[in-house]
Structures are given as structure tokens and as C-alpha cells.
Amino acid sequence: MLSTRLTGVAASEGVAVGSAFVHVTHDLEPEREKISESEVEEELGRFRNAVETVVKKLSATAEEMREGGSEKEAGIFEAHVEMAEDPEFQEGVEERVRDLESPEAAVISVGEEFAALFAAMDDEYMAARADDVRDVASQIATELMGGGAVGLESLAEPSVILALNLAPSDTARIPKGMALGFVIAEGSKTSHVSIMARSFGIPAVVGVGAAQLEDTLGAKVVALDGTEGYAVADPDENVLSDFEQKQKDVAAEAALLEEYKHAEAHTKDGKRIEVGANIGSAEEAEGAISWGAEGVGLFRTEFLFMKRTDLPTEEEQYQAYREVAEQFGEKPVIIRTIDVGGDKDLPGVDQPDEENPFLGWRGIRMCLDVPELFKPQLRAILRAAPYGKLRIMFPMVVDNVELRAAKEILDECRQELKNEGTEYGEVEVGVMVETPAAAIRAGDIAPEVSFFSVGTNDLVQYTLAADRGNERLTRLQSADHPAVLDLIGKTCEAAREAGIWVGVCGESAGEPDMIPKLVELGVTELSMSAPSIPRAKKIISEL
Ligand code: PEP
Ligand code: MG
């Protein structure tokens, strides 16, 4: 087979070569719509076999999860088994096949019908099951179409994953060590699949476009270079030896950066810059420390619970925050309160369909409206505070009206804990500056907080009116734009006047070209995906 080269956005550095795994999304198209009368019995048999195969795979995954101590995740797969075996679902499909519909078309249609029934239920938990039904139906349909594709969660061989797009919840489902790299049709450097890839040190090329990706779906092996931003499907000998050399170069650079990992970063004129990590789960804390993180500048708490199908309890959140606080000890950990909406769904939260989700009900807006979501998290953070140095940060804040409302709820939580006699600790409060409004009026907000952290990913998209996930807008997805730099400068000025510090936790914090500019503007803390830390410290120490 001929090699095919795909170019896209260099979203997470590093190189990888491995077997291709195509992630099928829910918008699966059946290969055939109709069958003939004489094929009915045979097709019914194929349908039953496909169900059996999918059930076997799902059961094996559930068992593996249970053995690995992941009870909750095991439960999800067991529920999927029940859905696949549901007699009503099976009868629905068989009836359509008897009416001469192809089994793959029938599975997709019946799956959609069931999903719609779930989605219409008043009960939030049941409504969230719609996606599970679609997931199961698409696995059976894929099996029928001979793809034999398994869900991401049961990926058993380390592979390069090709997909139209990956939602954060998809990425979270991939077993540890099974993703060698990502090649994604949609997205940009700051879409969440890219952020997660960088956190886990997985090379990624995104925004290659659906047409380019479709041409390579039959590839057996894929090589990708996430630093340069291209991938090669079915690489020939020359490409493979080229990639071997690249892998050696990556290892050599890592060795060179080793000495910076655990050192403090000072500029040549003595300015101390703290370099922290962005994390999305308690399990990432240990790795972050080993990369040299001097704290956590952004704990994306919504990622913590994306593998689940329901909302985490206060107790579960408390355990997670306490674990991170204890691991970092004296080093600060900034916990950002749940930031769902935009491109991030949270199973268990009833989110309406919106025309413009990034301009919609997200971040602090949702939290202020849903105290059942917000209060358990605030209580959990306060309870975990005595075990380390925790700080709270509110996302998407636009003005003091929101900030004060959030702080009031935080006070209420403190009061409740006090009245109950539950142990809790103090936390500093900061806000993310990620809306132009917050940056322009940073002077109003600064006196009411202990710190600012600039979320350049969103600040860029809202300032330049450019969707952060749109692969056609690469030029407008960088913080290195005078309009954005002005806003960061304004934020730093307001902070200086109020005597508070400013950090950056958007992806630009780890970009070699941006670090000098941010430091010059007055930023004193940078938080990034952990593997970027050693290089950032080297750059700072050479300023
Ligand atoms: C940001 O917007 O820059 C940010 C750090 O938050 P997120 O990427 O999670 O939206
Ligand atoms: Mg943001």
C-alpha cells in the first residue's frame, strides 16, 4: 500500500509509530440499507453473532476494570452488556430485518429510537443514558460492517488513534498506555483533545480535515510527528527510518533538559517564576511532580469525573482533592471549580442544546445556577484544605457580580461546615481571566481576589472571535496577537496596583515563543502540561 501524508496542526509534541485504530463516532453510516427476502435468515444470524461478540468484549472489559479496582467503570460496561442483551432492543432490530432492512441500518435506527426515549426522560440520570445506548448500537453496527472495531475503552493494543473528533470523555475512556498518538480531523491546539494529549505526553496531530482522514481509514500502520504536525499512513521503509531517527532526537533532548526539571526558575536578572502543572485527575499529580511541577496552577476538576455517568459526591471529591493536596504538600494547588459547557459535557448534568455553547451556560454561570453542583465541590475543597495548600479559582468570570455571588456561596459552605463541626481549612480565592470583560475591568476585580490566572485558550477565542476548536482558524488561535497581549498587560497592571500576582494557565504558558513575552508583561507563574515544564524552566533561566 502507498504511503499517504496528512498535514495538520502540531498539537502535542513527540513522535509515534504504531497500528492504526479508527474510533467510530455515533454518526455511523450503514453500508447497506436493504437486504433481499432470501437473506433474512442469514442476516438475523449475523446480527445475533455481532451482539454476542460485542457482549463478550464488553464483559471482558468490565471484568478487567473490576479486577483493577475500578468498580464504577466496571458498572458502566455491565450496564452496556444489559443494553446489548435487552430483548426489546433485539426484537426491534429483528423485526426491521424481517422487513428487509439491513441489520446495520436496523441497529442504528433502533439505537436512535431508544436513545430518544431516554433523552426525553425527566430524570437527569436516565436522560444521560441516551449516549450509552448510541454507543452500544454503534459497536454492534461496526461489528456487523466487518470493522470489528471495539470501543476506545477496550483498546488492548497500544495504537495510534484516528478519529473525526474525540470528546474529553472519549479520551478519558482510553486505557492507560494504549494511545501512542492521535490523528484527529477536527480541532486546534487548544481544543481539549490536544490539551489532554499534552498532559499525558501523547503526540498528536489535529485539524487534518475529514477528507484527508477518510483517505487513510484503511491504513494498518500510522507514523505521526506531533512537533511538526503531520502523519504518514502506511509509512514505507524510508519514512520508518526517518521516524527512528526522530525518536532518538526526542530522547536526546529529554536528556538535555533533565538538569532543569527540579531546579527553581529565575530569569538572569533574578526574577523568580513559578512553574506549575495543569492536571485533570488526582492520578496525574505524581507524574506532574516527577516532571518538576512546583505546584498545580490549574486542576481541571471537570475532567476528574468524565469517566463517570453520574455526579460525584462531596465525599468522593474530598478524597480526590485531599490526595492532590497531600502529594503537593507545601506547594500550592489551584483547584478550578467545575467548568462544563462549551465543548465539555458532564454526564449527570442536564445541559440544554445551545446555539452557541461557548457563549452559553458554562463555567461559573452554570455553577451559580445549580447549587447542587457547586456546593458539594466547594465543601469538598474546604474540607481538603487542611491537608495542603489549596486555592480556589472560578472560571469564566465576567464581573464582580459573579465573583461576589460565588464567594457568598463559599461563605455559606464555610458556615455550614462550622455549624456541623466538620473540620475545614482556609483557601485563597482567585479568578481566571479568560473573558475580555474580566481583563478590561481587571482593576475592579483585583481588589477582591488573591490572584489572577489568565486562561489564554478562552481569552484568545473570545477576543479574536475565533472558535478555539475550528481547524480553519489557526492564525487566530494564538495568544501572540497584539489584542490579546494588550489584555494580558492590562490584567498585570491592575494586579500590580492591587498587590496580587498573575499566572497563566492557558496553553500559551508552555509555548517557547510566548514565555518571554508573558514574563515581560509581569506574569510570575506559568502552569502547563507537565511534560513541557523542564523546557519552560530552561527558557526562563536564559531570559
Ligand atoms: C483557558 O481557557 O485558557 C483554560 C486554561 O481553561 P480551559 O482550557 O479548560 O477552558
Ligand atoms: Mg477556559
Summarize this entry quickly.
With 543 residues, the protein is an alpha/beta fold. The chain is built from 22 helices and 17 strands. Magnesium ion binds at residues 395, 434, 455, 457-458.
Structure description:
- There is one protein chain.
- 47% of the residues lie in helices and 15% in strands.
- It has 543 residues and is of the alpha/beta class.
- The protein has 3 domains: 111 residues, Glucose Oxidase, domain 1, CATH 3.50.30; 108 residues, Enzyme I, Chain A, domain 2 (Orthogonal Bundle); 277 residues, Phosphoenolpyruvate-binding domains (TIM Barrel, Alpha-Beta Barrel), CATH 3.20.20.60.
- The protein has an 8-stranded mixed beta sheet with strand order 1-8-7-3-4-5-6-2. An 8-stranded parallel barrel has the order 10-11-12-13-14-15-16-17, surrounded by 7 helices.
- The longest helix has 28 residues.
- The radius of gyration is 24 Å and the shape is globular.
- The protein starts with a strand and ends with a helix.
- The mean pLDDT is 90.
Structural class: alpha/beta
Number of strands: 17
Classified in CATH, the superfamily of the largest domain is Phosphoenolpyruvate-binding domains
Total helices: the number is 22
- Distinct small molecules: phosphoenolpyruvate, magnesium ion
CATH third-tier fold name of the largest domain: TIM Barrel
Biggest sheet layout: 8 strands, mixed
The separation of the N and C termini measures: 49 Å
CATH architect. name of the largest domain: Alpha-Beta Barrel
Helix percent reads 40-55%
Radius of gyration: 24 Å
| CATH top level class name of the largest domain | Alpha Beta
Percent range for β-strand residues: 15-25%
Spatial arrangement of strands, main beta sheet: 1-8-7-3-4-5-6-2
* Count of distinct structural domains: 3
* Poorly predicted runs: none
Shape: globular
Mean pLDDT: 90
